[in-house]
Specification:
The protein is mostly beta strands. The protein contains no helices and 25 strands.
Length: 361
């Protein structure tokens, strides 16, 4: 069963070059209608994607916490051109399985112990090992309390459980005001081109590291480096987030993709509607390794450096713009440029949009 596109965008005429030319050029978008279904599942909550060049398809994860259908990912084919996205075809869906080989059940607080499903947010394809890495933000309900640590797990291409990475102590959930906040934990994943390291980004600062926003100043969140061979964390870096727009809102890192072993494209987006969405090129450079630091509050920390790659909120012709949560490098475009594909999470809301966006780098 295939779902064809309902809308494909086209490139708009190039505007006058700004003082700093964006690293990414917008080419177009394609939208999926609200409540569209595929293979008995509701398409929505698309939070991350990763490109498989060998099969010429994308693995796209949904952050459905098994509320509508079991937590899952899709395989999607995109037909790209220099003018946009010509066609979107969903080709498969797989439930993410627990260690016993079962799909995750919905949240059930009345059971003993309670059933707590994951909150899937990040996905990364490993072309050498032919497997997937995926992250969950976990759960933190202080009533009870009901706690589920964030995680990074390994899955087969059919969703089967293959293992789990070791979580740093500073990313563990707590009923106290320490560790990650609810729904602000591991949000994005990126496998480095050499296949040796996996980077997992926190959406926002944990309680130990300061407030979600700080009076118009940058706040620091954490990006953790894991060793693929051992599954152990080997380093952690402070990533500086821009103040939210508008100031009363909250900004957050929603995904990242590796350009090299030390450089990334990172999405920052606000929770407002319409959101402010920007993509930055970030470098580890001389950043402090904060893995052993329980708190970055008031600490002497050198964060990662970054430069603006594109401001989607100020990109001519990019309308509508919704809650962009995923980014990956796709194939080379016919004109030789590198494609960059993004996807939005509609939060299963009729007032929001599921969209695939195409940029050229």
């Amino acid at each position: 069963m295939c779902l064809a596109p309902l809308l494909a965008g086209c490139a708009s005429p190039h505007p006058p070059a700004p003082a700093t030319t964006p690293m990414l050029t917008y080419l177009g978008q394609s939208q999926i209608p609200f409540n569209a279904t595929f293979d008995g599942t509701v398409i929505g909550g698309l939070s991350a994607l990763s490109y498989d060049a060998g099969r010429q398809l994308y693995y796209v994860i949904s952050d459905d916490r098994s509320k509508r259908n079991p937590s899952r990912f899709y395989t999607v084919q995109l037909s790209l051109s220099d003018k946009g996205i010509d066609k979107v075809t969903f080709t498969g869906t797989h439930p993410l399985l627990d260690p016993s080989g079962q799909p995750f059940r919905p949240l059930t607080l009345g059971d003993t112990p309670p059933v707590v499903p994951p909150d899937p947010e990040g996905i990364a394809f490993d072309p050498v090992r032919q497997r997937l890495y995926w992250s969950s933000e976990g759960e933190r309900l202080t009533s009870g309390p009901v706690l589920l640590d964030p995680w990074v797990r390994t899955a087969g291409l059919d969703g089967a459980y293959l293992g789990q990475f070791t979580l740093p102590a500073n990313l563990a959930m707590s009923a106290q005001k320490m560790g990650p906040r609810r729904d602000k934990a591991l949000e994005g994943l990126a496998l480095t081109p050499d296949g040796r390291s996996l980077f997992a980004a926190m959406e926002d600062p944990g309680y130990n590291d300061g407030p979600l926003s700080d009076g118009g100043h940058r706040v620091l969140t954490r990006i953790t480096k894991f060793d693929i061979a051992t599954g152990a964390p080997t380093a952690q870096y402070a990533y500086p987030m821009e103040p939210p727009t508008p100031p009363a809102d909250v900004n957050g890192v929603s995904d990242l993709v590796a350009l090299s072993d030390t450089a990334f494209l990172v999405i920052e987006r606000s929770a407002a509607l319409p959101p402010t969405v920007r993509v930055y090129r970030a470098e580890i450079g001389a950043a402090t390794d904060v893995l052993a630091m329980p708190s970055m509050r008031d600490a002497a920390v050198t964060p990662m450096s970054k430069t603006l790659a594109v401001d989607l909120s100020a990109t001519p012709g990019l309308s509508p713009l919704d809650n962009v949560e995923g980014i990956t490098l796709g194939p080379k475009l016919p004109d030789g440029r590198q494609s960059v594909v993004l996807v939005s999470d509609n939060n299963f809301s009729p007032s929001q949009v599921t969209q695939f966006l195409l940029f050229a780098m």
